[in-house]
Amino acid sequence: xxxxxxxxxxxxxxxxxxxxxxxxxxxxxxxxxxxxxxxxxxxxxxxxxxxxxxxxxxxxxxxxxxxxxxxxxxxxxxxxxxxxxxxxxxxxxxxxxxxxxxxxxxxxxxxxxxxxxxxxxxxxxxxxxxxxxxxxxxxxxxxxxxxxxxxxxxxxxxxxxxxxxxxxxxxxxxxxxxxxxxxxxxxxxxxxxxxxxxxxxxxxxxxxxxxxxxxxxxxxxxxxxxxxxxxxxxxxxxxxxxxxxxxxxxxxxxxxxxxxxxxxxxxxxxxxxxxxxxxxxxxxxxxxxxxxxxxxxxxxxxxxxxxxxxxxxxxxxxxxxxxxxxxxxxxxxxxxxxxxxxxxxxxxxxxxxxxxxxxxxxxxx
Length: 365
Fold this sequence. Notes:
The protein has about 375 residues and is α/β, with parallel strands linked by helices. About 40% of the residues lie in helices and about 15% in strands. It is built from 12 helices and 11 strands.
């Protein structure tokens, strides 16, 4: 007995966790600075922590009321109908729900390269075919409707990421409008705004009244600091919003996650702290790192260091965990998440030392 042919599938490669690295190095995880997974260095909102503690004794009950409450609160936030909010286990779950709702076996999906691996993974899970459009380093990973459309060939879904992971580039409102207007009638444009709170541009959610071929996925993992609870959502046009009931995994967003997300949505101070720190940190990286970096709208920067794997390994040995981006097709780079101000300054100091030493070793005697 064997599973179906998975030879074209790929495994997701996450950033290494602090506990995992600490075991390898024989050190205390508290002595490490983890900047590899774009997590919120301030943790979850204190209000969310209280909600988690309060919800713990009720986890014997299915999350019907909390799911409804969170759906209503998100809808209120964006001025949507409740049916337009598809609560999911992380933004990944929203991507899966859209794949379920739109893909027939053999349908093609257009994804960015480099880009988030899960777009392709979800496509293949649902028996679709993957095509790609390039984001060129020589063009500073610029994202435009023209660039996407140059590779477009009638695919059923087109994935766009703004801010983009791992490069940090963003897509303007005008470019999204052009893309939605120029693709074929059967094509859905999915805008991934997992890092949307960190960007200064308005959300594409505001375009849903105008376009019925647009969907937006968002998450509570990043700016809200709830990555461990896996809760996100897709925002969709009202015209086909009722498809959710037919593709939703029963009770996929759990009770604790829903209650924590509800509390986090009302803690504006924590969100402001998280966003402000990230915006400060990404500018600090760009100004202080002795390596080329790209402008970023997220809570991370991509920097070119020569040998990304060697730099990431050397940084780990010195207590800073950064993301080697070879899995994104960028082996010459590392991605560095925004830490607290203290963590960011410490990371820059160590990164600069490591990059200098790596360059010296590469150039030889």
